[in-house]
Sequence to fold (105 residues):
Amino acid sequence: MTVDIIDRFIERYRREYDFFEQAARLAYGQLESALASSGIRAMVTYRAKRPDRLEKKLHQRFTNKQYKSTQDIYADIADFAGVRVALYFPGERSEVDKVVRSIFD
Fold:
């Protein structure tokens, strides 16, 4: 049962991977532009979670989570895609927070 649910989920995720990659790329573009317009110097990167790493994570978490369906996995994993902001000046963190909140819900 475990392997079936995780395998089905990973198969589906592989088909959706391009969507998550594109969503991360779009968020990256918006955020990088907004930070530059605000005069904030930062390194902005993005990624979609690699299917092989996601599969490993799911197998590790299964012991505690006991996924019964692929929907359980979607409810559990929050980071299929992400954008990271590394600041040159940590004191600008609150300004970055304001920019992020003004762009994204």
Notes: Residues 2-37 form the longest helix (36 residues).
